[in-house]
Specification:
Length: 456
């Protein structure tokens, strides 16, 4: 890594930049893990002077950070360059501007904080402008990667024609969460966990990402994609892969991606509409920007299966939604009961909880009361809990964690192209069944558990 680092944020005036990226970069600056000499250059179409843009960033940071002296030192590294994403001349001027900031050789990170519609222009113009510096340029592209299999494949074909794969970081911010990353480390270092996660011993797996909040400012994007594409296509499928994929002996990048790809490609949807439950919270269609009679789902519950012998007929149930009664992200692995056990006995569970708590729980059953042989046996949970959150002084947030990995060229918690494409094959199949059967969303009340389903 060079002593100098230049981070270019395309779409620097947008919500993602101000809510996530600048706070994450400040966090890295505060922890003193950025190179000694670094520049952050915001690139967007809006008119700003350096000083005005710095003040806007400062104002945003100080809403949540009470370290004004440190913020003042941080924003001295921030610059602004106005340009158009589809204009090669804007990129040539950007290159001149970067050279003025630092005439020597510098590592560069181009972060795509822009709508997917401009990805192609950015990729082509960056490739043409930095033709002789591609080795030192990393592209960070955040989901969504296309709208379906076909558009994702087209995007990846363009990238491959312009850049080496080693320099492309496909980012899903869920993989920056410490509890999610702990899944891999936990399984790698604790064989007892892997011994439990065997398809032949599991009754079902439930993966939930439930939110109390509504769609908020994401209407323009959300009404085009819905909960299935927004949450299940990448976030929840990636969590499942880390939780149950085979753990390779040598956990290098190629082996890790191979096992994730194998698991994702084995996920199958039955094609049965009873295995789909979609809903929309009451009042969604009154929001500005929602198309008339929108059938966009703000809640999705999908049942899948794994096309592997050991996992035969084990249901994998994804549930996600907005405006629900709780904020919770968790994996529940429910084990089969022994053949002789009473049918009323609750099954043992292994629970990986990521929100609101960050912990792993093994829920067992204990007999607590038996007065006579005719009385029903009573049971209670024994909850053996271990935190899977960050417990050291060096604890970074989701985006700071991933940007730190990008700076050091670590792609462990980034996606491969094949993982994305295999996930799109699955989601395309689900969306095809919804469209073919003209499946309509059920309206559910805000603050409820979502639409009811007697099938899943």
């Amino acid at each position: 890594m060079n002593n100098n680092l230049q981070i270019i944020i395309f779409g620097a005036t947008g919500d993602l930049a101000f809510l996530k990226l600048f706070p994450a970069l400040f966090e890295l600056f505060w922890q003193k893990v950025l190179p000694e000499d670094f520049q952050i250059v915001g690139f967007a179409r809006s008119e700003f002077q350096n000083e005005n843009f710095r003040n806007k960033v400062k104002e945003s940071l100080l809403q949540n950070i009470k370290k004004e002296d440190l913020v003042n030192r941080f924003i001295e590294h921030i610059y602004y360059h106005q340009g158009k994403y589809d204009d090669l001349n804007s990129f040539e001027k950007l290159k001149e501007f970067l050279t003025q900031l630092y005439p020597g050789e510098a590592d560069k990170i181009a972060y795509f904080s822009v709508p997917p519609i401009v990805f192609a222009d950015l990729i082509s113009n960056l490739a043409d402008t930095f033709q002789n510096e591609k080795e030192n340029l990393k592209l960070v592209i955040e989901k969504p990667f296309g709208e379906d299999y076909q558009t994702a494949e087209k995007l990846f074909s363009l990238i491959e024609s312009k850049f080496k794969n080693d320099n492309i970081f496909l980012l899903d911010h869920y993989l920056g969460k410490r509890p999610v990353q702990s899944l891999l480390k936990l399984r790698q270092e604790n064989n007892v966990v892997n011994l439990m996660i065997k398809g032949s011993e599991i009754e079902k797996i439930s993966i939930k990402a439930l939110e109390k909040k509504d769609v908020d400012k994401r209407i323009g994007y959300y009404d085009q994609v819905g909960a299935t594409k927004d949450m299940i296509q990448s976030h929840l499928i990636q969590i499942l892969a880390l939780a149950i994929m085979d753990i390779p002996i040598n956990l290098d990048l190629n082996n890790l991606h191979r096992e994730k790809e194998n698991l994702i490609s084995s996920l199958k949807f039955s094609g049965n509409i009873d295995d789909i439950n979609i809903g929309q919270y009451q009042g969604y269609q009154d929001l500005e920007g929602v198309k008339e009679n929108s059938n966009t789902e703000t809640f999705a519950e999908i049942k899948l299966f794994i096309d592997k012998r050991d996992w035969f007929q084990v249901p994998i149930i994804f549930t996600t939604g907005k405006c629900l009664n709780e904020d919770k992200t968790e994996i529940i692995i429910e084990f089969k009961k022994l053949a002789y056990q009473n049918e009323n006995i609750t099954r043992n569970q292994l629970v990986f909880e990521m929100k609101p708590l960050e912990q792993i729980s093994l829920k067992l059953i204990q007999k607590v009361n038996l007065k006579d042989k005719d009385q029903e046996v009573q049971y209670e949970n024994i909850d053996l809990t271990q935190s899977i959150g960050c417990k050291t002084d060096f604890c970074l947030g989701d985006y700071a964690n991933l940007i730190f990995n990008i700076i050091h060229g670590d792609k462990t918690y980034f996606l491969s192209q094949r993982e994305v494409l295999e996930a799109w094959k699955l989601i395309d199949r689900i969306m095809e069944v919804i469209k073919k059967n003209n499946l309509k969303v059920q309206i559910y009340e805000k603050g409820s558990k979502g639409p009811s389903s007697s099938h899943i």
